[in-house]
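Bench log, entry 3. Co-assembly request; chain sequences pasted below exactly as received.
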Amino acid sequence: MRPYLARQLVQLVVVVFGISLLAFGILHVLGDPVLLLLPQNAGIQEFERYRHLLGLDRPLYVQYWKFVSGAVRGDFGKSWYADTPAFKLVLERMPPTIYLTLAGLLVALLISLPLGILAALKRHSWIDTLCTGLAVAGQATPLFWLGIMLIIVFAVRLKLLPASGYGTWQNFLLPAFCLGATLAPITMRLVRSGVIEVMNMEFIKTARAKGLAEPAVVVKHAFRNACIPVITVLGLQFGQLLGGAIITETVFAWPGVATLTVESIRNQDFPVVQCAVILLALLIVGVNLIVDLIVGLIDPRIRART
Amino acid sequence: MSAQTEVELAELGPSRAGAPRAGLATRLRRLRWGLAACAVLLLVVASAIFAPQISPHDPLSVNIRHRLAPPAWMEGGAARHLLGTDQVGRDLLSRIIYGGRVSLVVGAGAVLIAATIGVLLGLGAGYFGGRTDWTIMTLINVMLTFPFVLLALAVIAVLGPSLPNMILVLGVAGWPIYARVIRAETMAIREREFVLAGRALGMSHARIVFRQIAPNLVSVIVVIATLQVAQVIIFEPPTPAWGNMLGEGRVYMLNSWWIATFPGLAIFLTTLVINLMGNALRDWLDPHLKL
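Structure output for the full assembly:
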C-alpha cells in the first residue's frame, strides 16, 4: 500500500500545481481588472497607480511566484473589493457548499441504491424498464432547468418550500433534490450493472448452495461487491457533483463558495476567484484520494496488487 | 501493405462482438428506440436548418405591448404567439427554433475540438506509455479536477457569450473523456499481433498509430462523440441564462413559467434523443464498450 500511496501523493502535488497554473493563467488572459475597478473617466496615471498598487505591472512569473508562495501559507492576498483576506472570505462560504454537496450525494444514493438493486434483481421486468427509463430521462434533464422547475412548482405555485435562503431544513430540500437527481441516473445504472454482474458469479452460487436466505445473499455478498465500482465512480464524479453544486447554488441563491465565486468573477476580484478555485480543487483531489483508500480497504485484491 | 490488408488484419484479432451475429431484422428491432430517436433528431436538425422558413416570428423582434404573453391555450394567450412571449415580448417558439441552431452548432463544434485533442493525446499516451503517458494522465487529472463551470463562467463573463467563445471553452474542457477511453483502448490494441507485425515490417510510429490503431477506434470515438454532443447541449444553455437568473430575470422566469419551461423541454428532448441514439450506436458497433 505504501508505494502506491506515495505515487498518489506525488501525482496530487503535480495536479495541484497544474491547477494553480491554470487558475492564474486563465484569469490573466481574460483581461485587465483595473479597467473594471476604476471609473471609466479615470486618468491614465490613476490606472498606472492601481496597476502598481495591485502588483499587476510586474512580470507574470513574479506575480505567479508571489501568488504560489503566498497560497502555500494560506495567504491568497486581500480581496480587491471587500477589505478582508480572500482565504477568510472563501473559507466562510465553504460549509454551505459542502453541506449541499453531501445532501445531494445522500439524495442520489437514496434514489439510486434501492432502484438499482431492484432493477437488477427483477431484470427485464416492468420495474427494470421503468427504472432504466427514469435514468435515461434523468440524464437528459438540464440541472439548471430542473432547479427552476422545482422552484416554480414547489415554491411559486404550491408555496410549500422556500425558493431560496439557507439555515433551516426546508431550505435544503429543493437544492439537495435538484443536485441529487442529476447524480442519481448514472449511479443507478452502475449499481444495476454491478449487481447483475456480481449475481452471476460463482460465490453467489456457493452462498445459495450453502442455504443462505436470498436477502442475505443480496445484501452480504452481492451488494458489497457491487459497491466497488459505484464508490470509485462516485469519487470521480465528485468534481462533477461540485460543478453541479455551483449551478445549484446559483439557481437557489445558496450562500456557498459558488455564489461568492460567481460574484467575484463578475467583479474580477482575482484573489477571491483564485483562492476559491484552488480550495475547490484541493477538495476534489482530497476526496479522490480518500476514495482510492476506501476502495483499497473494501477490496483486498487492490491492496494486494500494489 | 494496403489499407485493405490492415483492415483484414484488424479483424483477425479477438472480435469484440462475442455472440454469433443475429440476423439483420433482429438487430434492427433491438435498435427500434435508437431509430425512433434518430427520426426525432432529424426533425430537430431540420427545424434548425430551416428556422427562417418555419419560425412564425423574428426571434429578436421586441414587442413591449405583447410582453409576457402566456401560451396560446391559456387565458390571455393569443394564437399568434403559440408558446407565449418573454419579458420584452419576443416570441418564445421562434426563439426556441433559432436556439436549436445555436445549441447544435455549439454541440458539434465543441465535440469536434474535444475529440481532436482527446483522441490525439489518448493515442499518444496509450501508444508510447512511460513518461508520455504519465504527463498526459497528469494533464487529464488536472482537467478533471479543475472546476470548469467556473472557467466557463469566467470566460463568458469577461469575453461575452459569443458563439466561438462557448465552442472553445466547452471544447477545451471536454477532451479528457476521449483521452481516457482512447488511451485504454490503444493500450489493449498495441499488444495485438497486427501491430507487432507492423513494427516488424519497419513501419513508422505515426503510420502504426494512424493507419493501424486509429481505424480500430472509430466506433468508440463515434459513440463517445454522440453522447458528448448531448452533454455539451445540456451544459451550454445556463451560461446566457445565468446572468439573467442572477439579475432581474429571476422574477420573470419564476412568475411567467413558460419562459423557462419550453426552452428547457426543447433541450431535454434533444438531449434525450441524442443519448438514445448514442446508446443504440454503441449496441450496434461495440456492445462491450463501457461508458
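Residues 92-128 of chain B form the longest helix (37 residues). Confidence is low (pLDDT under 50) at residues 1-19 of chain B.
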